[in-house]
Design brief:
5-stranded mixed beta sheet, Nucleoside Triphosphate Pyrophosphohydrolase, 7 strands, two-stranded antiparallel sheet, alpha/beta, single chain
Length: about 150
């Protein structure tokens, strides 16, 4: 192991592709960011991705949701340290669940459902767009994807 390998650190996050009955994807607008994201967030130290995602869903939108299989794992190489994205299959929300969405106002300013084709680099962080597209494709194809990205 090289000295630089010992010093490298990586952060990780988990998100879900949650949909409504019309094939639209739930997106959240964090109050501390300029762009939209899939619901989810960073893993706490020692936390597993699926457990972190369920915690984040409860915190961000107030729903205790089951999380399905892994859609994408993406490694983003950054100068400040790598970041690993885990994107899981989320549920299709019923109308009742949609009405029960409760925002954590200190973190989430707004939620909405949008058509997958409307998710563009103007809406989401550009470095995340390939991850979103891969997750949506993985849902359609029925097999997970792995990405290695550079900013």
């Amino acid at each position: 192991m090289t000295a630089s390998a010992r010093r490298s650190t990586a952060t990780a996050s988990a998100a879900a592709v949650v949909t409504d009955g019309h094939g639209r994807v739930l997106v959240v607008n964090p109050v501390y960011k300029e762009r939209w994201n899939l619901p989810g967030g960073h893993l706490d130290e020692g936390e597993l991705p699926r457990a972190a995602l369920r915690r984040e869903l409860r915190e961000e939108i107030g729903l205790d949701l089951e999380v399905g299989g892994l859609l994408v794992t993406a490694w983003l190489a950054r100068p400040e340290g790598a970041h690993v994205f885990h994107v899981f299959e989320g549920p299709q929300l019923t109308r009742e669940q949609q009405q029960r969405i409760t925002l954590q106002e200190s973190e989430i300013g707004e939620v909405r459902f949008c058509r997958p084709e409307d998710i563009t680099a103007d809406m989401v962080p550009p470095h995340v767009l390939p991850v979103w597209r891969a997750a949506l494709a993985a849902r359609e194809q029925g097999r997970p994807a792995y990405l290695e990205l550079s900013p």
